[in-house]
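Q: Fold this one first, please.
A: Sequence and structure below.
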Amino acid sequence: MRNAKIISTGMYVPENIIPNSYFDEILGENVSEWLEANVHIRNRRWCSDNQSTANLCGEAAKINLKRAGLRPEDIDLLIVCTDTPEYISPSTASKVQHRMGMTNAGTFDLNSACAGFVIGLDTAVKYIKADENYTNVMVIGAYAMSKYLNELDKKTCNLFADGAGAVILSLTDDENEGYLASELRTKGEYCDWMGIYAGGTHQPVTKEVVENNDHLLKFVKRFPSELNPDVWSDMARTLASRSATKIEEVDQFIFTQININSIWATLEKLDISRDKAHTVMHEYGYTGSACIPMALDEAVQLGKVKKGDLIYFIGSGGGLAFASAAFRF
């Protein structure tokens, strides 16, 4: 049986560190204490003026390839998961493929907002399992949301940040490693609650749109606080059933990193200790479709994830899109 396993990880964040105190100054009020107490964000990284999503992807890809011991031309398929693309068209993946010299790789972008990376994992697995022409697939989750922030909107400006995380999945026939199960869900009734609503065909960018900041990220409605914990915990139970594993056997849960309280509430519902979910929002802010591969990479580098460990990835993002995947690392 053909299967796919994760053979390497890598991440990159811009050098530009934005501390909470920056927002105290521009907003004219103390938001630092709330950010640290409620979402555990102390710093975040933003792109410089000459950096874009493709830059972030390229740097993460370099690290990923080096750790895998592969050449760029060894990659058969590149999937870039992002909702902050280099262009409306063509794909960010095509630019990264050319820049990186992945001459044998097909490419496409995948936009499911912050759930995109886990959906990208699932998609890569299906290519490797179904088609003998795919042996090595790189999946990159990338986010440059600082380019879409209104710095005077305190609902968004101090949460979101930039970064990229990458993994390479490769063919394996070892039944004791790799992909075990996955699930996708969508609650489309929330599609207009948060997003970047101008720039596409629904509302092309005009002078009036820019003057009203309608081309920037907006929280339109407040999401129910119980939504992510309820869905995430249920998806974890479904993963356990589909993968014939037990939740208490999971070595690390890698969740979307937008709200540490949602992570803790989920773990409480599952009766799992907090040390089983590595988090990275503290120094990097919320990095959307990049946060799960970034958390995975940091956990690997810290020794929290080792060969043979059972990992549950559970992500959610605007749409609302939800995705989960279980892997034996």
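Q: Good. Now the second chain.
A: Here it is, same layout.
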Amino acid sequence: MLSISDINNLIGVDESFHASYKLSEILEQKEVREDLFNRFLKKESDLSYDWFTEYFQAEHSDRKGKKQDFTPDGIIKIASGVLGPVDSNADICAGTGGLTIKRYSENKDASFYCEEFSDRAMPFLLFNLAIRNVDATVFHGDSLTREAKSIYKLSKSDIYSDIEKISEIPEINAETTIMNPPYSIPWDAKKERLQEDRFKDYEVLAPKAKADYAFLLQGLHMLKENGVMSIILPHGVLFRGAAEGKIRQKLLELNYIDAVIGLPPKAFIATDIPTVILVLKKNRCNKDVLFIDASKECVKSGSYNVIEQDNVNKILSIYHEREIVDKFSNVITFDEILENDFNLNIPRYVDTFEEEEPIDLTKNLNELQEIDKKIRESEIELASMLSELVSSDVNSSVQEEIDGLSNYFYQRNNHFPRKKTYKGEQLSLL
């Protein structure tokens, strides 16, 4: 695996802060960027994962300011695994491309579309796509306002993708959409947006303070009529009311929501926010929703929870089989969700309560009596030790305190030793 110093040395910078700018310059020159690709591949030839996730997370992410996180590998595998093989995929808020790389590794002949706002992430995203010789369109801009900074077209060649700037985005109708947008950020929810095709069927906009459903509807809008989408969001989208409640209700009435998969807390590096994967499908035949509580499907690693391959396999197996497993998954009818006022909070539908073992009162009482006996024995032993202590000044208050404490423990335990005398050897207290 490439270290931070490896990446900086290859790009030719001393500090990671300069990497994005330097990489942008390199990507503009075909011979220079292909030389860089060759040198990278000598260091790391495995193209199945994003080499820059940990590098970019440690050096460039801004959880506090931009609500920006980079998707851990286990979550990537789940989010991609629920979608299946395709010929075209869209990745909104693509970051450095981890989700797209996973889709590419399973669908190498597919075409890809990515959107990313961050100026720092964009060069790494273009690098990741071009070194893998991917056919892709990349929108550098705001996914919600649709304001573009640049648009790139990547075309397959003999070894690496060619990169060129284009002026317009082609119409996007992807078979699958995959998303890990920034969580609950503010956005420009002006009323005129209700007239846009992506929002007009829902009668309300996502609230100005929380753009979660705005991102969801943008991704859904890019799907073909038989498309499938997975999106990673905070749990609040399952139960918050007002405008979000109305959008959630409409999505259920349109029969778009296929599954709700609750993920372990502390699965991301930069946030403890518990997250959920929503799976949405157009033109579904069934009208129920699969709920999976995978909050314990992980292995603790330091202060984080890691979703390992066995956890991924279990979750995906239950998803694809639509299996009901006690305390783990359940399939819920539309009518039951209606009775719950379109609230999708997972504990309403998956009961994970574990009954505590009955208390053995006799055993506990015996243990308490044994503990009490040991305490009494220890106190008598302490009193005996205190009674052996003799102050060098018989008339001092120190001797009175020692004798008083010793007598207290003796009396407390109904133990009455012989009267103390001061003849013989005495122990001086310092």
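Q: Anything worth noting on the second one?
A: The longest strand covers residues 223-234.
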